[in-house]
Amino acid sequence: MFPKNKILVFSTIVAFIIITSNACKKTKFEDLELNNEMLSGGMQTVFDEGNGAYGHSFANMSAQHERVHEIGDIAFEQTFVSNPAPLNGGLGPIYNNVSCISCHIGDGRGKAPEVGQPISSILFRISQSNRVDMHNGPLGVIGYGDQIQNRSVAGSVKEADIEISYIEKTFQFDDGTPYSLRFPTYTLTNMYMPITSSYDLSPRVASPVFGLGLLEAVSEQDILANADEFDMNNDGISGKANYVWNVLENKTTLGRFGWKANQPTVMQQSAGAINSDMGLTSFVFPQENSFGQIQYDHLDDDVEVSDSLMHAIAFYIKTLAVPARRNITDPKVARGKQLFIESNCSACHLPTLKTAVNVAFPALSNQTIRPYTDLLLHDMGAELADNRPDFLANGYEWRTPPLWGIGLTYKVNGHTNFLHDGRARNLMEAVMWHGGEAEASKNKVKSLNKADREALIKFLESL
Asked: Residue range 47-75: average pLDDT?
């Protein structure tokens, strides 16, 4: 299990008290704001810069809630196996991985494999081109569904393998300094049956799971207040909300999770991953991911993840705290923040949001958080396009990913690969991949001198 060090939780509370009390003694508004910037998750901020930084529970939860969180933690890390099995059975018959933690290592970010390496923490969505299902979502491919499962249990056959290759291209900043980007190509191989229709294939690297409960607690009204689908203010930024099918509510609701904001809740996101990635059924998705395919085992028995365990897993994810900002008084970091704002990166990566009042669960209630996202869709240009629509998201649009905790990626996950498919090998490459609505911001960064580029990255690494 990940460390749930009570000293660290206590230190979060103490630090908040110290910061707040010190701020009260200040006379300058800037000092108060600077202190508050440390609290990325509001009161649900943890002061840990080590490899367990993403794995801490909320502070100030009841003993019962702490217990549910721990049960969910155990299940999140548990390896599932194929039936018959006395414990943790139900894996497959087709799947991508054997546990949640295998993709979300340390509750963090997956990594795209290098050429020739096995695929582990990246998956591939697939759907029929120019067709939608009854809920206006992507329509799965006959024989494959809406996700490629590249593994299978004994006696079954995997759907396909995915071959990844890259072409390296060199570019220059305006001062003549070279940089390079790698352009990926994805090819299905060893397909168990041919696909006769045109299809769209899109990679998805596993995203960090901390802080999702706080993002879910932001009101729909506040999210929509930042939307400007038709760019009525003429600033070149046109954030758009995605509306997606909510399985449990049996209606279309606001999407806020996933690379295209194609999931409405933490529960549906979690249950969907458990079903699609591991072949495990639950009360949310009671049907096997292989239903209708030759791999289907026709065992329509009880769900494989009990209702209570599914709720515990979702609760665990909802109550993961957020790492604090670091080095906020460093002049280079301060300069980088200024450049971030001047480059208009903050138009999509909104520094602050606020959670709604929640009298039933005060740990989530009325918190000012600093996730650096607007949870909206934005056109990111042709080079980042996957050309695969997902409900209201078109093939060029992606949800603004939160930036909180991004500077600890190497500490927790051992790599610095970013973007939806991990093609960017560092933060600067991720910036230089931006296009579409972010083209002007990218060009602003491209025009910076070396010292300012380094300051911008230093700021991002402080988040």
From this structure: 97
Q: Taking 80 as the threshold, does the pLDDT of residue 423 lie above it?
A: yes
pTM surpassing 0.85? yes
Count CA within 13 A, CB hemisphere, residue 272.
17
299 vs 272, 273, 284, 287, 405, CA distance in Å? 20, 20, 18, 10, 42
Helix (H) or strand (E) holding 205: strand 199-205
Average pLDDT over residues 294-308: 86
Structural tokens at position 329: 């008084």
Residues 373 and 339: their CA atoms lie apart, in Å, by 17
Calpha distance 348→435 (Å, rounded): 13
Please state which of the ranges 25-34, 85-94, 124-133, 250-259 shows the lowest mean pLDDT: 25-34
Quick one: pLDDT at residue 19? 41
315 in Cβ contact with 327 (< 8 Å): no
Which tokens sit at 68?
A: 């549910």
CB 58 within 8 A of CB 45: no
pLDDT score of 114: 87
CA 163 to chain centre: 23
pLDDT digits (tens, 9 = 90+) for 387-413: 999 999 999 999 999 999 999 999 999
Structure tokens belonging to residue 42: 């509001």
How far, in Å, CA of 436 to CA of 384, rounded? 9
Residues 227-243: tens digit of each pLDDT: 999 999 999 999 999 99
DSSP-derived secondary structure for 268-292: HHHHHHHHHHH----SSS-S-TTTT
| 3-state secondary structure at position 216 | helix
Q: Which residues pair with 244 in a beta bridge?
A: 253
C-alpha 123: how far from its chain's center?
Answer: 13
The pLDDT tens digits for 374-394 are: 999 999 999 999 999 999 999
CA-CA distance, 264 to 245, in Å (whole number)? 8
**Tokens (6 digits) for 109:** 């970010």
CB 408 within 8 A of CB 49: yes
Q: What pLDDT is attached to residue 7?
A: 38
| Own/partner pairs, 47-52, CB within 8 angstroms, 24+ separation | 47/8, 47/11, 47/12, 47/15, 47/323, 47/324, 48/5, 48/8, 48/323, 49/323, 49/326, 49/408, 49/411, 50/411, 51/106, 51/411, 51/412, 52/2, 52/3, 52/5, 52/106, 52/412
DSSP codes of every residue in 315-375: HHHHTB-EEPP--TT-HHHHHHHHHHHHTTGGGTS-S-EEBPP-TT-GGGTT-EE------
Query: Which backbone phi and psi does 222 adopt, to 5 degrees?
Result: -70, -35
